[in-house]
Design a protein that fits this description.
This protein has 975 residues and is an alpha+beta fold. Helix content is 34%, strand content 19%. Helix 5 runs antiparallel to helix 6, helix 7 packs across helix 9 and helix 24 crosses helix 25. The model has no long low-confidence stretch (mean pLDDT 93).
């Protein structure tokens, strides 16, 4: 094809074919009739037809396109269908006359017509955010397609196509002529010139082969994985297939990701990594990738502007215009050197190290081993009780160490905790690309290499061909542009005599760039390649060791038994907590909305001090006589209803529930226990026996021992009987089961239940339900056990014990989790006669349950709950949080209900508010997205479609609002 023909094509509008005319074509030539809907396209006209159980896509293009090009597309589809592991592709459907391509004339205009099967699946186009798993899968899909097309041959691949990145420069020139906005045109032209300048030296080394050249969010279909993430597995349009640059194919894919990236060009890296793992690229191709992405962005932006000028009614182009402008802005806004380095690292290639062997000392009067490195990481012992949030905390700690040791420095490559941002949806810019040194004022600073001085205000740069040294904090008399020899004096550390001063040291390979001081974690490798470590100028200790979370996780998997699962497929490495926040080793702060174990909040200083004080004095077991166990038992008994005056102290909720069941057996002499379906009570033999949640144990309903009798869960939202007045219907089911036990003459030991349905997300039981069931159980001599492990101890805000909401008094109360704020502590509170029944089987003790340390922990937790008003906080903040969650229901139909009270809440997701179909995959995806946004959240319930919201009781109203905002964004991004 000549260039003139290409220019003519670029000016063509879409075929003018109405839906009625398309229906006539389908009926006459394919024998099909059905419902038509138009699909978008830039220069073709596409219609979907649903005909019975089958769906198809009618593709109509102008006759200016050669038939051999369409034949190549059909042949490529058949080529891929013959490959055993190729991505899903549509089938070519022949016409009634057996032909794959028809020539049709309408209103004296010739068109080429084809029919393909419709490939089912979700689209990625309108999703605002793509998770890393989806991005990786798209990269892998693009690689698989390129790999499988490598041996494909067809004369129709030799095309002059405006999308061919080998022709990006000339095509851009043609497209720019249609853009009337001079400022936009100049910006687009400059971007293309810069991209072509970087591509040209590499062009000869770029491999050429058949490539799809349009594996984008528009042209793939997906299925949801087990985590609800859309995984691309099919390709639907082969209109741009050519013989072209292999890496250009990946550039097209990566460019399409940029409008999902929220302005972050590094979002392409998972796709690059996945592509390279399937179909490895060569170094020249990797270096050409980013400028090719820029070139693709230029062509997209210019082409859409021109197409709208030609075809202003093209809603498809108009709808994509904002996306393409976003792609252009992100692509042209990134530093190409940094992106090249990041891409090389993503593919496992390192930037050559900076040659520093011949350099002389920067600080000749200070020995490297005299520089003390200050740890400012998330695990630093210098940080406690949120002191890292104080202004200038880094400099305070640095100066303190310098006063003690003479000279101190921060570490390059460290994720500084002091730059962690609370309640932030984006990761912090906290990876240090420099070192700060605190040292005596007047210390001499010399040039480690020869170069020239450049001044940018008070900022000094020593430049050479290979690298620039950026320095702040120096008194220097040298003028801008002055040459300086290696080892010559640059200046001295600013400051008064006998005081300390500060020196900032940063290296950069790009002489024209003033680099940032910090980078975000996912950008660190790219920026670190451009800004290498200055440790060679200071001390080896001035470079922080790098954490390898993946290797640590592998070590965990090797020795930590597999049934002990961890949150998230790729979990952050959490190493610090404070109040309602958790911090990973990269200094990212997460709002902890799931950790009901730490009721007071993480790292409470008062509790820490109490534990340290007691442990330094005494810790033993409860068979010894000491004050703390007595005082703690008295406090617990005083909190319980009158008559429940005997306390057992144990290690966990599982142990507490197990002991409660044993007490029921011992006191009644019977074995039969009633429990609720969908419930969880623990992992010991007895507590697991009455746990019926299939989310925790998929075999729960078929493996219960014969002494366990589950009753239908009184789930007022999705149970067989619904609403707050459904209690009598559920009680009737309990009565029927009790009558069956009566008829067998086996007797009843008791009934165990959470008074608020915690495992289903805090659903309130029907009004009066427990009162009637308790009465029926007691009528038969059984005991009533209230499992308060998750829902009690002030968490509901409006009540200290959750059984108070049902206006009942149990015979046995079990508690754990929050009562120790993470320390292993549980308790059983009951009547004296019930407690003493256990002596029939011998005495009881728990090694750590009532130890001095455990007792002090329990007492201190109760003191803090009282003194800090945490139950009241649970009520006020919990009510505020629930109102915010309910408000989201108006916008998002996925939210079926908001359950719970205080700071034990549940958000239940359904696909249909009438049928209540559980949105299990969507819930998993929302939890993963919330993690991206800085919130720890996990699903619960038998269908794993409920967010179980149970944060520390110190949760602030700002944190509650942030959670609502993060959930709102996660829901928006899922659309």
């Amino acid at each position: 094809m000549t260039d003139a023909a290409l220019v003519n094509r670029m000016q063509l509008p879409r075929p003018d074919i109405t839906p009625e005319e398309a229906a006539e074509i389908l009926q006459a030539h394919y024998g099909l009739a059905g419902t038509l809907s138009e699909l978008g396209s830039q220069q073709d006209r596409n219609y979907r037809i649903d005909a019975g159980d089958n769906s198809y896509v009618l593709k109509i293009c102008r006759a200016e396109y050669d038939a051999v090009e369409l034949e190549a597309q059909n042949a490529a589809i058949r080529h891929l269908l013959a490959k055993p592991d190729a991505p899903r592709v549509p089938n070519v459907v022949p016409a009634l006359n057996g032909r794959d391509i028809l020539t049709i004339t309408l209103r004296e205009q010739d068109y080429l017509v084809r029919l393909l099967s419709y490939l089912p699946g979700q689209s990625l186009t309108r999703r605002k955010h793509l998770p890393a798993g989806s991005t990786s899968a798209l990269g892998a899909l693009s690689a698989r397609l390129a790999r499988d097309l490598a041996d494909f041959e067809h004369p129709g691949l030799q095309r002059n196509l405006q999308w061919d990145l080998r022709r990006a420069g000339p095509v851009a020139v043609q497209l720019l002529s249609a853009i009337t906005d001079h400022e936009a045109r100049d910006r687009i032209a400059k971007a293309m010139v810069a991209a072509v300048k970087r591509i040209q030296p590499l062009a000869g080394a770029l491999r050429v082969q058949p490539v799809h050249h349009d594996v984008t969010d528009d042209n793939v279909v997906c299925h949801p994985d087990a985590h609800g993430q859309p995984i691309p597995d099919g390709v639907i349009d082969f209109g741009d297939i050519i013989q072209g640059w292999l890496v250009g194919d990946l550039a097209v894919t990566c460019a399409s990701l940029l409008h999902h990236a929220e302005g972050d060009p590094f979002a392409i890296l998972p796709a690059v990594r996945a592509y390279h793992a399937v179909y490895p690229l060569e170094e020249a191709e990797l270096k050409a990738l980013w400028p090719l992405i820029v070139a693709r962005a230029v062509i997209l932006a210019a082409s859409s502007e021109r197409q709208l000028a030609i075809d202003p009614e093209n809603d498809y182009v108009r709808g994509n215009l904002d996306h393409e402008r976003q792609i252009f802005d992100v692509a042209t806004g990134a530093n190409p050197e940094v992106m090249e380095a990041a891409i090389l690292r993503a593919a496992g290639l390192d930037t050559p190290p900076l040659a520093t062997d011949g350099w002389s000392a920067l600080l000749p009067d200070i020995a490297p081993d005299a520089i003390a490195a200050v740890d400012l990481s998330a695990t630093s012992p210098l940080f406690s009780d949120g002191n890292w949030l104080k202004p200038d905390m880094d400099w305070r700690l640095l100066a303190k160490e310098a006063i003690a040791s003479g000279t101190a420095a921060t570490r390059y490559g460290e994720f500084r905790l002091s730059r962690a941002e609370l309640l932030a949806m984006a990761p912090p810019q906290n990876f240090a690309l420099h070192s700060d040194v605190c040292l005596p004022a007047g210390t001499t600073v010399t040039a480690p290499f020869a170069g020239h001085i450049q001044w940018d205000g008070q900022h000094l740069v020593l430049t050479s061909e290979a690298v620039s040294l950026h320095l702040d904090g120096i008194d220097c008399a040298l003028e801008d542009g002055a040459a300086i020899e290696q080892g010559a004096i640059i200046g001295t550390i600013a400051g008064e005599a006998s005081t300390v001063g500060g020196l900032r040291v940063q290296l950069c390979r790009l002489p024209s760039l003033v680099p940032p001081l910090f980078a975000a974690a996912h950008q660190a490798e790219g920026w670190a390649a451009v800004c290498p470590s200055p440790a060679a100028l200071l001390s080896p200790t001035c470079e922080a060791p790098r954490e390898d979370g993946a290797a640590l996780l592998a070590r965990r998997a090797a020795h930590f038994a597999r049934p002990q699962k961890h949150y998230y497929q790729t979990p952050p490495q959490i190493e610090r907590g404070w109040r309602e926040f958790l911090f990973d080793v990269e200094g990212r702060a997460y709002l902890d909305m799931v950790n009901n174990v730490t009721m007071l909040g993480h790292a409470h200083p008062r509790l820490t001090a109490a534990i340290e004080r007691q442990w330094s004095r005494l810790n033993t077991n409860s068979r010894f006589h000491y004050a703390a166990v007595t005082e703690f038992s008295e406090r617990l008994a005083a909190l319980a209803p009158e008559g429940l005056d005997s306390v057992f102290l144990v290690n966990s909720g599982s142990e507490a529930n197990d002991l409660a069941i044993r007490l029921a057996w011992a006191h009644t002499g019977k074995r039969n226990m009633l429990c609720l379906l969908e419930a969880y009570h623990g992992w010991t033999l007895a507590s697991d026996a009455v746990s019926t949640s299939i989310a925790d144990n998929p075999q729960a309903l078929t493996t219960r021992p014969d002494w366990v009798h589950p009753v239908v869960s009184p789930n007022t939202y999705r149970g067989p009987f619904r609403g707050p007045h459904s209690g009598p219907d559920y009680v009737a089911g309990v009565t029927t089961l009790l009558q069956a036990i009566d008829e067998r003459g086996e007797g009843l030991a008791g009934f165990i239940a959470e008074p608020v349905y915690g495992n289903a997300g805090g659903i309130a039981l029907p009004r009066g339900y427990l009162a009637e069931v308790y009465a029926a159980v007691r009528e038969r001599g059984g005991l009533c056990i209230a499992d308060e492990v998750q829902v009690g101890y002030g968490r509901l805000g409006h009540h200290f014990w959750s059984f108070e909401s049902q206006e009942v008094v149990p015979d046995i109360i079990t508690i754990a989790k929050g009562m120790g704020n993470g320390h292993p502590l549980g308790a059983v509170i009951t009547r004296r006669d019930i407690a003493e029944s256990l002596e029939k089987e011998g005495y009881f003790f728990s090694s750590a349950g009532g130890s001095p340390v455990s007792s002090v922990v329990g007492l201190t937790v109760l003191d803090i709950i009282r003194d800090e008003g945490l139950q009241e906080n649970a009520r006020t903040v919990g009510d505020h949080l629930k109102a915010g969650l309910i408000a989201l229901m108006e916008r998002f139909a996925l939210i079926g209900a908001v359950h719970g009270t205080g700071l034990y809440l549940g958000v239940e997701f359904v696909r249909n508010r009438e049928t209540l179909t559980p949105a299990t995959e969507e819930t998993a995806a929302i939890c993963d997205r919330l993690l991206d946004l800085g919130v720890i959240m996990q699903p619960t319930g038998d269908h794993l479609n409920v967010l179980k919201i149970k944060p520390p009781l110190c949760l602030s109203q700002d944190s509650a609002d942030f959670f609502v905002q993060a959930l709102e964004k996660a829901l928006e991004d899922a659309v």
